[in-house]
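Supplementary Note 3. Input sequence used for the single-chain structure prediction.
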Amino acid sequence: MVMMLRVGPGNSYLKDVFPALLLIGAGTVTMAAPLTVTPLSSVDAGNAGVASGINNATARASGPVAVAALALIVGMGPDAYRSGAAFDAPFGLTMPLCAALMCGGALVAFVTLGPTGTVPQLVHWGTHGWLMEPPRAPRLPNPHPHPHC
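The predicted structure, written as discrete structure tokens, is reproduced below.
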């Protein structure tokens, strides 16, 4: 995020903006799977759908809220969107704030998340080329074993 401070009037996209965007993209790709797996692995299989829904809703709602909150925190008003010079000062405050919030979040995760337990080995029942089927669920017992009852 701090690399984004190089963005400004007269700067080159390839030299000043693109490296920061590559770094942000690499971080997003690296963190997307662990941020999804962590909440889903903390619940039993029966609640995985609910956990996935909560995780998705939180992820979708937090982005716009964070953007709006950051603009308010750094004092960005409606005039900032009308000129580049007025946008530059709040942008210069927002990027270090984002970097500090990310470091704080990483520290909280490091301190609060414990080691994971052992993951049981799943048995895959069938393969189709390189594609493997998920394990089959056990069949439920028939409550009426006799058709005439």
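The chain has three helices and two strands. The longest strand covers residues 127-128.
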